[in-house]
Amino acid sequence: MSIRRYHLRHRFGLGGVAIGNEFAFATDEQAEATPSAAWDAGVRYFDVSPWYGLGLAERRFGRFLARKPRDEFVISSKVGKLLRASRDHAAKSYFPFTNSPNTPHFDYTADGVKRSIEDSLQRLGLDRLDIVFVHDLSPDNDYLPQDWETLWPVAERGAFPALTRLREEGVIDAWGMGVNCPQPILRCLDVADSDIHLLASQYSLVDHADAVEQLFPAARAKGVSFVVGSALNAGFLGGAPRFNYGADNTVIARDKRERLQTLRAVAANHGVDLVAAALQFSLAPDVAASLIVGTASPTHILADHAALRAKIPPAFWQELRERGILHPDATIPD
Q1: What pLDDT digit, counting tens, does each position of 58-87 carry?
Q2: What pLDDT was estimated at residue 2?
Q3: Which of 77, 114, 174, 300 is the most buried (most CB within 10 A)?
Q4: Cα–Cα dist 198/182, whole Å
Q5: Residue 109, Cα to own-chain centre: how many angstroms?
Q6: Active-site residue identified among 6, 45, 52, 203
């Protein structure tokens, strides 16, 4: 295996999707209390994006993090979508619970990347980003103005070399893709000089075969690591009535519902907390640098943080293998 290109020193982080009001309205008090609880528990990695609430999540994280010593935490954000405020904005067509005045405009050019980072730093009130992910240049993104493969050369000639230069200049520490599908990451590994990628919905107890068979071997060969953001499939494994993201995420396929029933049954057989098992599973691979969970609840972030230390008997993982839930080559936690 190659030497890892970038080492993310924090194994657990708080994601900003829920604080950006993606699933429900979160108050400013919740948006302050959640990262505060995470910080008090020792969490020092935070992931956000201009997309989350169309600027709302970055502003909320910034109000909290701007009061913390900058060298004590790592923050990642994303590029590819510029926000423009206007009277006739369409924010609620993307996020029904946001109060943002912004409309997103996709831009994967070099100038777009630089502008996006500058805008993010202003919303966050910080002097730098540690990690930057190229966001949602992916076949599942129906909001793209053109097919992702049509837009790919723009990013390959613009965003990717711009981010590499910013890393070499010391403006950022690392960059990669932040997507829901494997194809963009695999292509990026072939054509660009990336460091770490965000698996937004590609590695969980419910769905991990593609990562095991394709992504992880390719990443090992390049010395690239991953932030896993899909351990609970947007709350599905924790009991939420949705699977991953998108306008139709409450329409859950039968095979996913059946797999959840099996997981619950096996967990009950062994007295295992399914959320704890899901989180530990997603952090187990050698290429998993960190795990992020998205919540606007102080109680949930503390419970998820504690779940990483829950004891899970080997027999639980063995039964999942025997039932065909786990890929034969999937790494199980120690």
Answers
A1: 999 999 999 999 999 999 999 999 999 988
A2: 55
A3: 77
A4: 10
A5: 22
A6: 52
CB atoms under 10 Å from CB of 300, counted, come to 18
- The values of phi and psi at residue 134, to 5°, are -80, 115
User: How far apart (Å, rounded) are the C-alpha atoms in residues 5 and 222?
Assistant: 8
- Per-residue pLDDT of 193-203, as tens digits, reads 999 999 987 89
46 CB contacts (<8 Å, ≥6 apart)? 13, 14, 15, 16, 35, 38, 61, 65, 73, 74, 75, 76
Cβ-contact 257, 251 below 8 angstroms: no
User: Residue type for 259, please?
Assistant: R
How far is C-alpha 86 from the geometric centre of its chain's CA atoms?
A: 28
- Asked about 6 being catalytic, the answer comes back as no
pTM greater than 0.85: yes
HSE value, Cβ hemisphere, 13 Å, CA-based, for 165 = 10
> At 117, is the secondary structure helix, strand, or coil?
helix
Tally the C-alpha atoms within 13 A of residue 193's C-alpha that lie toward its C-beta: 10
CA distances in angstroms from 268 to 49, 107, 238, 316, 322, listed in the order given: 37, 47, 14, 10, 16
For 4-46, write each residue's pLDDT tens digit: 789 999 999 999 999 998 889 999 999 999 999 999 999 999 9
Q: Cα separations (Å) of 321 from 82, 248, 266, 273?
A: 44, 30, 11, 18
The answer for 254, left when phi > 0, alpha when psi is -120 to 50, beta otherwise, is alpha
Q: What is the pLDDT of residues 266-322, one digit of tens each?
A: 999 999 999 999 999 999 999 999 999 999 999 999 999 999 999 999 999 999 999
